[in-house]
Specification:
Elements (H helix, E strand, L loop, with lengths): L5 E10 L2 E11 L4 E5 L6 H8 L7 E6 L2 E2 L5 H8 L2 E4 L11 H12 L4 H14 L15 H13 L5 E5 L7 H18 L2 E5 L3 H6 L3 E6 L2 E7 H5 L4 H8 L6 E2 L2 E2 L2 H12 L21 H13 L5 H24 L36
Parallel strand pairs: 3-8, 3-9, 6-7, 7-8
Antiparallel strand pairs: 1-2, 1-4, 4-5, 9-10, 11-12
Length: about 375
């Protein structure tokens, strides 16, 4: 059973006279990994806080299990929050508690489980994120990456249906970011929960999620399956996902119109779309990610509505994936060049060194 669907409709948030974003409309598909992008200061973290009811939007709705979080009473909101697990940017661990007690905290606070039951759950989650054996270390004694993994273990202890990640790769080197990205997808394969990741890392955005959304100029520029966003001809989306200087986004978010037009003319001289980067797969021995088939079916159903260049790039990408999987099955090789190894139910331990349906364009959402 996949995680819960989250339906956001016409959401607007301001602080005083400062509008953060308006009329944000999207649906997080159940059990899939979604990423929210946008230039700095566009309110991505504010959006996460609104989803869990820490901030109250002025307009719109957030519907989970037929309940609107924006309008429900405090008692119902408290219960719905138990559906969420949250990984904060720095892990947000209690500095005076060891890792075991940090991870056990939600169980002691929100359940009536015995200490023996709590121990079983905590040790299981620590093993899942590669921290077995580090139970009695304090947050100040471990690396930033290990703190993030401890924060992730804490986010998992209540077996949430929705997990939010607020810039999980911030402060990490590329190698540890790659480990963390693999861990996120392996966890999704195991739990089939609904994930939403806020990130600035372009490689993460290109290779991890099933769906991509982007906030720009106080609105949701676009939200949809990864293949559609990665082949989009929308100037803002294309500029951001390709990490280009040329385009509407400038140092102060919006460029001078004439300059943006000159730069877009330079881009127009280029022909074709770059090949789509393949999505990271779950590690060998993990359950198959059911989200992939669900997303690809949506993309195939809407393929005829996309520009010809996008259709060609997406069809080529699907064909290459099918060929790679068929070849792996024939020769016994793992996809993307991973060596064969004995199947295991555990996620490989991360080193202890420093951790190291149409496209939704903000107006209509897909159910």
């Amino acid at each position: 059973m996949p995680g819960v669907e989250v339906t956001v409709e016409g959401l607007s948030k301001s602080f005083g006279r400062a509008n953060i974003w308006s009329d944000v409309t999207l649906t997080l598909p159940p059990g899939e990994v979604s990423v929210l992008l946008g230039p700095s200061g566009t309110g991505k973290s504010v959006f996460l806080k609104s989803l869990i009811g820490l901030l109250k939007p002025e307009k719109g709705s957030i519907v989970i299990h037929d309940t609107d979080l924006v309008r429900c009473n405090e008692s119902k909101l408290y219960e719905l929050r138990k559906l969420f697990g949250v990984l904060f940017q720095d892990g947000a661990l209690f500095g005076s508690m060891n890792l075991y007690d940090n991870i056990a905290f939600p169980l002691r606070e929100h359940t009536k489980k015995s200490e023996a039951q709590i121990k079983d759950i905590v040790m299981e989650k620590m093993d899942m994120v590669g921290l077995k054996g580090d139970e009695y270390k304090l947050p100040g004694e471990i690396s930033g990456g290990m703190r993030k993994r401890a924060g992730l273990a804490r986010a998992l202890v209540l077996d949430p249906e929705i997990i939010l990640f607020d810039e999980p790769d911030s402060g990490l080197d590329p190698v540890r970011t790659a480990y963390l990205n693999q861990l996120i997808l392996d966890l999704n394969a195991q739990t089939d929960s609904t994930f939403l990741i806020v990130t600035h890392d372009i490689n993460t955005a290109q290779t991890v999620p099933d769906n991509i959304g982007m906030l720009y100029r106080k609105h949701l520029a676009m939200f949809g399956p990864r293949e559609v966003l990665l082949t989009s001809d929308d100037p803002v989306v294309s500029q951001f996902l390709n990490g280009r200087r040329q385009g509407p986004i400038g140092m102060s978010e919006e460029k001078d119109t004439a300059q943006a037009q000159r730069e877009m003319a330079e881009i127009d001289e280029l022909s074709g779309l770059p090949p789509l980067k393949p999505q990271i797969e779950a590690s060998k021995g993990m359950p198959e990610r059911k989200a992939v088939a669900r997303r690809q079916k949506r993309v195939r159903d809407m393929l005829h509505t996309l520009p010809p260049a996008a259709q060609e790039a997406i069809q080529r990408s699907f064909a290459e994936q099918e060929h790679a999987h068929g070849r792996a099955a024939v020769v016994g090789a793992a996809p993307y060049g991973r060596p064969d190894e004995a199947p295991t139910s555990e996620i490989p331990r991360v080193p202890d060194a420093p951790l190291g349906a149409p496209v939704d364009r903000g107006r209509h959402h897909q159910r």
